[in-house]
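Example 3.
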Amino acid sequence: MASLWLAKLKLPVLLMVIQITFFALFGLFVDYDSEARPRQYGLSESNNNSAVFQDVHVMIFVGFGFLMMFLRRYGFSSMGLNLLLAAITIQWSTLVGGFLHHGGDKFTVSIVSMVTSDFAAATVLISFGALLGKTSPLQLLVMALIEVIVYAVNEYIGIVLLQVSDIGGSMFIHAFGAYFGLSVARVLYSPEVEKSTKEESVYHSDMFALVGTIFLWMFWPSFNSALAMEDAQHRAVLNTYFALVACCVVTFATSSLVNKNGKFDMVHIQNATLAGGVAIGTSADMIIMPYGALIIGSVAGFLSVIGYKYVTVSLAIYQ
Amino acid sequence: MASLWLAKLKLPVLLMVIQITFFALFGLFVDYDSEARPRQYGLSESNNNSAVFQDVHVMIFVGFGFLMMFLRRYGFSSMGLNLLLAAITIQWSTLVGGFLHHGGDKFTVSIVSMVTSDFAAATVLISFGALLGKTSPLQLLVMALIEVIVYAVNEYIGIVLLQVSDIGGSMFIHAFGAYFGLSVARVLYSPEVEKSTKEESVYHSDMFALVGTIFLWMFWPSFNSALAMEDAQHRAVLNTYFALVACCVVTFATSSLVNKNGKFDMVHIQNATLAGGVAIGTSADMIIMPYGALIIGSVAGFLSVIGYKYVTVSLAIYQ
Amino acid sequence: MASLWLAKLKLPVLLMVIQITFFALFGLFVDYDSEARPRQYGLSESNNNSAVFQDVHVMIFVGFGFLMMFLRRYGFSSMGLNLLLAAITIQWSTLVGGFLHHGGDKFTVSIVSMVTSDFAAATVLISFGALLGKTSPLQLLVMALIEVIVYAVNEYIGIVLLQVSDIGGSMFIHAFGAYFGLSVARVLYSPEVEKSTKEESVYHSDMFALVGTIFLWMFWPSFNSALAMEDAQHRAVLNTYFALVACCVVTFATSSLVNKNGKFDMVHIQNATLAGGVAIGTSADMIIMPYGALIIGSVAGFLSVIGYKYVTVSLAIYQ
């Protein structure tokens, strides 16, 4: 009985300890950025970031929140867990990112740092998607705390030391989050366990997942352009917009082609329509020209449907 | 067997051919606008357009997407088709509009052209609404390709040649889209076919349609002001806002008046609350004064409910 | 028969009379603000407000609209009533606020006045939440008309005369709206009536309420910063963001702690996650430092769950 009572306390007590630690670390290290301090004028540029930040925020909480509802049994709680994981990740990544970039000195927060923390939340939520229905909230929490550190170090090495360009975070957010989640899944589960999980989808939850997809899809131009400046920001919006519409057309076409009745498969639509946003992410701010964006988006949509159709199936055979 | 196989290929192959044609035409004709090219400064004004563009984008994909779910049988797929039609229309109207306005020369894309392409998508989706549950995806696709051309020519004649003012596209988007859709419906169907269609609405899909209505309703100030400048943009936001709230009050009042139990009819709410946004569209940027906006919105709401109640019923009688 | 017919007419006729009165009062008193009049330049700052206004608008119509759906029987109609009440309140509070601040002279409307009117709508909708399922549309309408006057006078005394600071309206919007609604409930109902009401929640409507919560939660930084300027606006965004994420973590922790199985209670998540936004509202634009925002949000989340768990239950016992 006593041990059961202790088990039940583990998660809330850990959450409380984490939050109190955050108080202390924020108190010691975090200050407002100059644009959020008195006597600063002519800040119209950063004002715009506020609108872009809100767009990214919608992707994190509505986009991912709904997308996670594709498993029926977890529909409701997955949206709540999505909120909890993001809320912890946002605070933790503000701290970890600050420590890494300022070597233990005090550092500041701004609308740009809010966008960056939301990006870290996106990374954790992508990993969460790979683990949905297979892990307890406690395991997810531990994963999030570790993943944020690995993510920040990986991004620091890539962006700061190697000077890799990845404006929309295709590598450092999407690919990293997906592989991290898959690795955790591999460590935690044997194939037998995996088969017994409640991974079933129904009409209703499929519809919610589609809503999530559409919110992610719509606001992707803001996501890919949020950290770009001036003309590069305009290019990032334009390139992402065109990559996504082309990706969408090719996803529908390929989905119909590989279906034996020529029907569109909603699972393809939910996933592959977003591939264009990921694919264009790395180069969204570059001068790749509108037709280049169309081609990148199209190839991504095509490969995503083909990959989903044939690779997943063949993996299932070999399991 | 072979012909069935061919039939199934028709749609995806057509989609692929269209997308590849788009690659070529974009490669030959489309470049970035100056504000998306390097070494441009002081672009704070167009940054704002980026937020307005995202609002319009939400109307196209969430607003229309949900609104189309009012037919139960098509709930799910209508949201997907909405996405596909918009994705094709956006690319095609970028090209058609560019050809028309630049006589075959190269032309540029910018955030303004993205808004314009989204407007063309709105036009096609309004026509789609009139055909929902009566047409195949292939028919809708062909309709979209033709409609974009007619739309662009119509708009070119109206705005460029005749210098008609229609900032929110009441005539060139809403009225045009509706009549085009109804005309296509008339051409494609005999009354008998029409009766047998699956046009049934249920509680659940009605709720989704209401969500679509509310997303359209909320962001309409951005829609009507997206292409206006400076003080005209402010007026367009204010006038649309006031027209919509007044329209809303009168729609509820009229809906209750014409109902034999004094109840509100959700079908009226879903449709007539938006009439104010359409009605104010043409003159949204003009100095019509706040009370003028209230009156325009109110008359629109009243006529829309009355029209829906009595004209639709009488049409049904004569069929 | 005749009296029944008259009863049915009461609501729509009242709505019509109200709307026509609004025409007259707007015609006599309301003009555009200078930034919405011709020949005004360099208005990039107020352009940003347009994006913030749209965020607040989403909170009013989607956030509150969905949140009100927590009662199953009222799911559908509550979203409609939410729309109607907000549409009336927006117009009425434009007038009442204008009269109060300009002593009967003509006054102007601008994007700032639109935000202020949306805030008044939030107040009325919070009161509506306390009355849901217990009142007729007519009663709600009368309440809204009266509440707007009391709200405006209360705010005028507080902000203008006493110079109280309440940038996010914690006192003048949230607390006022809640207590006004509870007072009306107390006046209108005896305990027996209250017990017989249809206040039941089900899985499905709980999910919609969670969606409402998330829309309110996401856009709260825009809400609390909408009327702040320059660096204060940045601080309001940052402080609200941090208060909300910390509030979220502590809400989940406390909800698990007070649950006998250690589970999260969705009713807590739906309500207490928002407490951080309310708590930080009064001081959101002040230099309270990021760790201060975290602590304020956390305490609010903790007290909200504890209050809901123990105070509500004990109230139920004493009833």
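Chain C touches chain A through 52 residues (CB under 8 Å). Strands of chain C lie at 30-32, 107-109.
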